Amino acid sequence: MKGRYFTMKRHEFIQSVVRAEMSDKEQIRQNCISGTEKVSQIGYGVWVKRLIPAAACFMVILAAVIAFPYLNSDNERLIEKPGTVESQPQDGTKQAHTSDAQGKIYPLALNKIDMQSESERVNIPGHFWQELSDKQKTAVYPDFGFKITATVNYSSENGKASVFDVKARDESENGGGTTITFAPGQIAECEIWDAGTETSYVHGIPVTAGVYYSMFTAEFKLEDIAFKVSLNDDNSDRGLERLTAIVNAIITNGAPDMSVFNNPVIPTLRDDIITLQQAYSDPDFGAYMPKKIPDGYGLEGAARIINQETNGLFVTWSRGLSVNVWHIFKATDYELERIVSANEHEKYDMSRYPVPHYKSIPDELWDVVTEPMFRAEELTLDIIRARAYKSGRSGAEWHINFNVLYGDTVVRLNANGITPEQAWEMFAGLK
Fold first, then answer.
1. 190-193 and 397-406 beta bridge pairing
2. How far is it, in rounded angstroms, from Cα 267 to Cα 253?
3. How many CA atoms lie within 13 A of 361 on its CB side?
4. 240 phi and psi, to 5 degrees?
5. Of 231, 261, 291, which residue sits at a domain end?
6. Cα separation of 387 and 370, whole Å?
7. Model confidence over 363-422: pLDDT tens digits?
8. Do you find a cis peptide bond into 107, omega within 30 degrees of 0?
9. For the segment 86-142, what is each residue's pLDDT rounded down to a tens digit?
10. Cα separation of 147 and 124, whole Å?
11. CB-based burial of residue 363 (10 Å sphere; 0-12 exposed, 13-18 middle, 19+ buried)?
12. By residue range, what is the domain housing residue 107?
């Protein structure tokens, strides 16, 4: 996704994540809130979008959503109260299943959100997931009038699994990135709401709704199931109308039947923090560890991950705010589709694409330019030099990322602060 990202400084966000017992959703929310109080803007990195290891405590925090140029910076333009919120029972009494309530749409009072953060990937212990079948979707969602896909995320331990959360996405062209998330107890995401938020009552259920730039959000509970609805729309009337309709539909439908998620098949999983010695001796990937580490870089962490998405080894070294991530994993179609040759300069040469990259890289080349794959026998120092670019406040720090294919194994380097020559030395001797 091309866009403008905001995040904490690396050392701040690593400390924030490491502090959390990641199975504790409340701790995740509190650390998220704590971290977003120290937001700083970074450059338009080309490698942020792919997998970050949970066990190594790397988590992408999108502190703020994409900042659209046509929005006012004070976030006031979209705050439009829909008038007096109709008086309803405020004791949480559920009226969703009465005949009088079925067709009634209750309005939402729209509050201001001062900051919005979402963890793309938190460390869910024993994490695995399943796509919902049509039967499961019917059991837990109303008919929204648009097509959705949905995924249930499980946590597991000692052969037992429980639902962590369920997330649905609107797949229609005009869906505005609509997501509908629910979870037992609490959702591991957070907003910082403006003081004095106004609560709406929808069919007797208290709802907190708000907007951050063009991102509309509503939160509420049905019995012990927490819900969060988010969508993006630069038209304030349309965004509020869509949010209101979705919230009313969910509440009218009632609490989801969680029994449809019982007895899942738990796949083979591994999510282990390991030592550097264990990384080098790993029977699958140890041979692809770098033989030389740039001077001054110390070990940040290492992890061995096996799940439905990847079978890989992650090692990270750091020096101050500079971080080098070395990721070894089995190739998938995603990587194999991005193999480029040395003469295809338009697909990998970063000297052609000045920062900010979202403006300079053509849409049709975005995926391959941001994550090119080179065959091991074709990798040269000149290619690495072509991948390197300088950015940052001083404009003096190198940023380098690329993938190298060794048979069916991929080595990915995401680095900043090292030179192309140092990156080349890390790959020396790998076969």
1. unpaired
2. 32
3. 26
4. -65, -40
5. 261
6. 10
7. 999 999 999 999 999 999 999 999 999 876 555 689 999 999 999 999 999 999 999 999
8. no
9. 444 444 333 333 334 557 899 999 998 876 655 445 678 888 999 999 999 999 999
10. 28
11. exposed
12. 6-261
